[in-house]
Amino acid sequence: MKAVRYVLIAVVALVVLAVAAVAIAMAVINPNDYKPQIEQAVEDATNLDLILEGDIGWSFIPLGLELNSVEATLEGDRFVALEQLVAQIDFWSLIAMSPRVNTFVLDGLDARLEVDEQGNGNWTRIMPEKPAGAATEETAGTQDEQAQEDGGAGSEPLNFNVENVQISNAQVHYTDKSTGQSVTLENFTVNASNITLGSEFPLEIGFRVATTQPTFEVDGSISARLAANEALNEFAVSGLNAVFDMTGEPFGSKKVTAELGGSARANLENETANLSGFTASLANLKLSTDLNVTGFGDKPTLSGELSIAEFSLKDLLNNLGQPAVETSDPDVLKAIAFSTGIGGPAGKVELTDLTIKLDDTTFNGSGSYNLADSGIVFNLQGDQLNADRYLPPQAEGEAEEAPASQETAAAGPEGDLLPLETIRSLLLDIDLGLGQLIVSNLTINEIKASTTAKNGLLKIDEFSGKLYEGSFGANVTIDARSDNPKWTVGSDVTNVQTLPLLTDLAEVEMLAGGANLKVNATTTGNRISALRSNADGQISFNLAKGEFRQMNLTRMACQGIALVNQEDLTTTDWGTSTPFNDMRGTLDINGNTLNNTDLVAALAGMRLEGNGTVDLAQSQLDYEVGLKIVGEIHRDNACRVTEYVKNAVIPVECRGNFAEDPAGLCSFDGSRFRDTLQAMAKNAAKAKVDEKVDEAKAKAEEKAKEKLQDKVGDKLKGLFN
């Protein structure tokens, strides 16, 4: 026992002697006397020139070092400088083998980083170049040492304690001469105290960053309480409050504020992380979420909620200094919101109870995203949307200038419609429903749309709805596997009333009736011009119980009949429409041209027959229509249908731009009427010949009858006498 006591006394004595020796050395030795040696050592080992202008001091309790007014230059230019550096370690914590940093102070740091025209940074020239062999040996040695350190590190927890950290007035200047970009970090400050692993500690950071391309400035402040365990595999942030005031060219020189708040925690060993009460805001846009993540690999599992509070997009753009979105209705884009639940199995993000609000339109549904194959699935159902409210307002005189603007657009370069590479990578399955849609002044109800995409095939399997007392359905397939995509379009329209449709769509009131259409067409290309020129297919149509408006074909027919009868029409109230039954025909699609050879319709006392073409590129109509007289067509006596008028054809031509003057398209065709007159004259001559023949036959029959009666009478008389 005495031996142990003596050993302990000896150890304590050695410690006391060591402490005394250090204290005496610090009291006797002045570190400022060694400035030249220190400067020379740095210059020998690096390409830096070290200048120690200020005093160097040290202390015993706490054990510390203090540097003042230090500067290092590189090739004659300042590389780094600092006003003061203070590092103090609690002496007794060293004795206890549990080092504790008492104070770390860094004030007035000034660093200059520069990239030359060739893209080389000045920091790469700090160390002198060494022979290749030496570098290899040094690298190998370093790797061996690192391996030994890693092998000997074991899993012992780190005992780390810092009482106070202060960084103030720090600045870093970065200049890239190859791009002209310049970035400055200044007013950088850090304050932290009582930094102990396993416990929370406060942290405050402040800074200012400025760039030149574009001109942009950020003033930031961050405060939070941080925590890390001794194994450095679990971290936590609580009470986060980060504010960033930004201004510059990206925001039109306006001041914009962004903020972050909430709490976060991550465990690297268990691969878990979560955000609790986390909020992020930019101007008047605010996002909030509670999110849990399990697994940091390729198949994480997520759960939580995400929402964006209602905001005005127009106010947001104004706050961000961005151009305004001009809309025909100034009250739209002022109430936008988003919310969803987040869940799903590993490797798949599922959105549940998804709600998207756009002004007075609400979409509800669900969706998912597969991390393995980037597959996207959405199912959304909306109530009503007036898309016309979101279109740009029409300026005064814009309608009159439309043709000129179209020519200008046609003269400009034409771009591709579809991003083919993107389509080839898509994996989609989207179902969309909408109770009511108003677009181009058309009202469409009960819309259903189903879209899929896989391996370069984009399919709209269903696009259907109800439209003006009728219904429609369409399907489209786009094969984008080649650089010249193939399009296949099919559509059925049933009993859609054309008058309100054309009136709402283009303010055209030339046709009424229930339209029935069948469209089957194909085309190739990725530009509008190519799609039009390569179009091929057929459109069959039928209109039951309709009428031509703003034109009276009966009057045109009667004008022709009156000419034949060599009389004048006395009727003045002809009206402005022509009723018909069952107008039908087929349009053959040949590029920009639609050919129709079998147009027929039944009118009162007439049969309409015609053929012609429609040039979609020029919006031109070129039709020759014949009105075949099959019965009485009007009460006007001059329009009476005589025997030689019946079955004659009254010609009508319809030519012109159907987009500009639909009312003036059709008129009586005088040039073709000569043929009609000849036909009528032949009919009249034939009728007269037939009449004379009939009269001759009647007279001959009468004479024969009289002779027969006379002979019979004579015989009777002889019989009775």
Automatic annotation (TrEMBL):
Q: What is this protein called?
A: AsmA family protein
From the UniProt entry, list the residue stretches annotated as the region Disordered: 121-159, 394-415
Q: Which organism is it from?
A: Marinobacter maroccanus
The family database entries (InterPro entries) matched by this protein are listed as:
AsmA, AsmA-related
Q: One Pfam family name from the record?
A: AsmA
List where Low complexity composition bias occurs: 132-145
What is the superkingdom listed in this entry's lineage?
Bacteria
The residues forming a coiled coil are: none
What residue stretches are annotated with the AsmA domain?
1-598
Q: Mind listing the GO biological process terms from this record?
A: regulation of protein targeting to membrane
Q: Name one GO cellular component term.
A: plasma membrane
